[in-house]
Amino acid sequence: MARLSSDNRTAHRGRVAEIGRGGWLTILAAIAGSVTMVIAGMAGIAVGAVMIGVIGVVAAAVVSSRTHSTRWVILLLTALLPLTSLTLLAPAAQAVVFKADAPGNFTGWRHDFVEDFNSPLDTSKWGRYESSNNQIGMLSEYDAPNVYTDSGSLVLRTSNAGGADWRAAGVSGAKGFSAAQGKWTMRAKFDRAYGIGCAFLLYPKGGGWPPEVDIAEGTAGGPRVMSTLHWSPANLMDSRFKYGIDMTQWHTYGVLLTNDKVEFTVDGTVWTTISNPGSPRIPMWIGFQTGAKAATATATGEVVNSSTPQDSRVYVDWVAHWTAWPREWSATPRGRFPQPHLDVPFDSLTTVQPTSSPSPMLLVIPLIESHTNAN
User: Fold this and answer.
1) How far apart are CA 290 and CA 211, in angstroms?
2) Is the distance from CB of 320 to CB of 183 less than 8 angstroms?
C-alpha cells in the first residue's frame, strides 16, 4: 500500500483541520439560527437550519481539495449559509404562520368586502362597544380600549379589573359595511378561557331585531362551537353545536345566507344547514364580542370560576364577504351587484329583551356608541 510522504501527510492534516474548522463553523451558525427560530416560534424553520448546517459540512469536505485561499472563501460562505437563508426565510415564515390572506373571487362568488386588520382600527368603519353596566347574564361591562389591532389581527381582550369586576370587548362593523345574504367568513383563534363567552354575529343594519345570525358562539377556546339563527320577536331560534375543533388554533368560521336556508361552515366546509323561511334577506353587519359569564339561574355551559384566566384574548385575522355572481336569488333588484353600504345611518341601538327562552350565550346585542361617541 502506498504511504503518504511527509509533505503529503502535512498537507492532508491541514485539509482535515480546515474541514473540521469549516464544519464546526457551519454547525455553530446553524445552531445559532435554529435557537433564534425556536424562540420566535418557528421550530420547522429551525430544523431546516440544522439541515443546512449538515449540507455545509458536506460542502466543506468537497471543497477541501481546492487551493488554500479558495477553500477558506468557500468555507466562510458555507458557514454563513444557514444565517443568510434564515434571514430571507423568516419574514415569509412569519407570514405563513401568523397571517393568511382572505381568498379573492372564486367560481360563482365575487369578493365585495375584506378587512385584514393590518392597520390601526379604522373607527370610521368599526364602532367599539363602551358601557358602564354589566351585560345581561355577565359579570363584565364593555371597555372600548379592549378592542385593538396587533400584528395584523383584531384583538378582543377580556380582563379582570378586581374581584367580580370584569372588562370585556365588543365591536360592530355597522358603520362600514353591511350586505344582504351572501357568504361571510372570518379567520380566528381563541385563548382557552373557561367561563369567558364569545360571539361572532350578524345583526340587522339600522337596528331592529330579529333576525340575528350567531356564526360562532360559545366559550373562548371551546370545547364546542354553537351556531344559531334567531328569526322571531318571540326569540324563536335554532341552535346547532359542533364538537371536536381546537379553537385555540387558526380556523375559518362562516355562514352562507340564501332564501330559506342558512349554512354554517368551518374551514370552508358546511357542517350544518338550517332550512327556515326566516333566513335573513335584509342587509346585516358583522360584530365580534366577548363577556365574562355569570353563574345565573339561566346560565348554560361554562361560567367564571377560580380557573378562569385573569386576562384572555380572541384574535381575528380577517373577515370577508362574498356575493353570488351572477346572483342566485333576488335580494337586490334585477340581480344588481350590491355595493358596500358606507356611511350607514347609525343611531344608538337599544337592548332587545327576549320574551321567551334566552340564547345560551350572549342574550342580546348590547348598546353600541353613536356617531358622536364612537371610539
Assistant:
1) 20
2) no
Residue 16 has pLDDT above 80, yes or no: no
Residues 6+ apart with CB under 8 A from 11: none
Q: What is the pTM of this model?
A: 0.66
Which domains can be identified in the chain, with CATH numbers? Answer: 6-98 (no CATH), 109-373 (2.60.120.200)
Q: What are the tens digits of pLDDT across the range 270-328?
A: 999 999 999 999 999 999 999 999 999 888 889 999 999 999 999 999 999 999 987 54
One-letter identity of residue 29: A
Q: What is the pLDDT of residue 2?
A: 52
Phi-psi region of 101 (alpha: psi -120 to 50; beta: other; left: phi over 0): beta
User: Whole-angstrom Cα distance, residue 251 to residue 268?
Assistant: 9
Cell numbers representing residue 143 in the block: 371597555
Question: How far lies 46's CA from each of 35, 49, 261, 269, in Å?
Answer: 7, 5, 47, 33
Measuring CA to CA, which residue among 35, 20, 25 is closest to residue 86?
A: 35
